[in-house]
Design goal:
With 322 residues, the protein is of the alpha/beta class. It contains twelve helices and nine strands. Helices cover 47% and strands 17% of the residues. The two termini are 41 Å apart. 42% of the residues are buried.
Length: 322
């Protein structure tokens, strides 16, 4: 494959200036840009058309999910001659040189279906929540189990596994990567900057909602694939339920009869100390340790929400943090 044909799928909703930066970062680097809009009210669709993108406006009568939006964009590309597709969220800008480097890697490694790099937060100094996002995306280099929302992918591999799962409100990328790996494909994290992201999280409530969405994704992923050989997200789900629900419930039930049970409340600060020291003991490590421990409460809430809705036959609505 001397000169692979590369297209792009961008998804977004009310991204404003972030969408403009995203589309500009793709200009001249891909053949076609498909922008899929999930009910924006800020004129995003018109702006994308003016910027030269092909626009897909999702049907408002069906629930929005990022997976559904990406699939709608991919459907425009299937059979259109593209070899690779850069999927990217509309609040991200692609770093110059990334697409070329990732395309060279996929061309030279025919068993790799997905190449991803380092997503960085554009303004980590703006809030502790932005810094946490930036740290979360600093994943190990080399063969990986999953990618995030931004990646360069082989279009034929995506089509062969049916793309993303429309029904997932979160965790659609690990689900996709698991199915790709089951077909013999590999996922690879390159040592290269890939995108700049604008989380724009300045309030505790935003962080809480994002963590609750993660817990929902853990529980749903474990329910779908946890019985497989990888035990997909079973550990994450059990850890969230233990620290965020089981332990506090046990203290609440036992304390009126056995006051010594209150000593179990020390488990959380001990966990913070353990994680901080294991991470290096720097100020940023203490910050990380505190929030990763606190996150078990919204994660447990998200996991319990998934199971409650599953048992009662309800569909979980999209959990948004912005």
């Amino acid at each position: 494959m001397a000169d692979p044909i590369i297209d792009a799928v961008v998804i977004g909703r009310n991204e404003g200036a972030r969408l403009g930066a995203c589309l500009a970062s793709l200009n001249g680097r891909v053949r076609r840009v498909i922008y899929v809009d999930s009910g924006s009210t800020d004129g995003s669709s018109d702006f994308a058309r003016a910027a030269g993108a092909e626009v897909v406006d999702l049907d408002l009568s069906r629930p929005f999910t990022a997976a559904r939006a990406r699939n709608a964009g991919l459907a425009r590309l299937y059979g259109g001659g593209a070899d690779f597709v850069q999927v990217v969220d509309g609040d991200c800008s692609v770093v110059p040189g990334w697409i070329e480097r990732a395309a060279d890697f996929l061309r030279d490694n025919p068993k790799v279906a997905v190449a991803c790099g380092r997503r960085r937060e554009r303004h980590p100094e703006a809030s502790v929540y932005n810094r946490l996002c930036d740290r979360e995306w600093d994943t190990p280099v080399g063969e990986a189990r999953a990618c995030g929302g931004d990646a360069l992918m082989r279009l034929d591999a995506l089509q062969a596994v049916g793309g993303y799962d429309d029904a997932l409100i979160a965790g659609e990328e690990p689900d996709l990567c698991l199915r790709l790996r089951a077909r013999g494909w590999k996922i690879w994290r390159l040592d290269a900057d890939m995108t700049l992201h604008d989380a724009n999280m300045t309030r505790f409530g935003q962080w809480w909602a994002r963590a609750r969405r993660a817990g929902h994704a853990f529980a749903e992923g474990a329910h779908r694939h946890g019985r497989g050989p990888e035990r997909h997200w079973l550990r994450e789900t059990r850890r969230a339920l233990f620290w965020g629900a089981g332990l506090p419930l046990a203290v609440l039930l036992l304390a009126p009869f056995q006051p010594w049970a209150l000593l179990a409340l020390l488990a959380w600060p001990v966990q913070v100390i353990r994680i901080a020291l294991a991470s290096g003991g720097r100020r940023s490590d203490w910050e990380y340790a505190f929030f990763v421990t606190l996150a078990k409460f919204p994660e447990a809430l998200g996991a319990l929400t998934f199971h409650w809705n599953r048992l009662t036959g309800k569909r979980t609505r999209l959990i948004e943090y912005r």
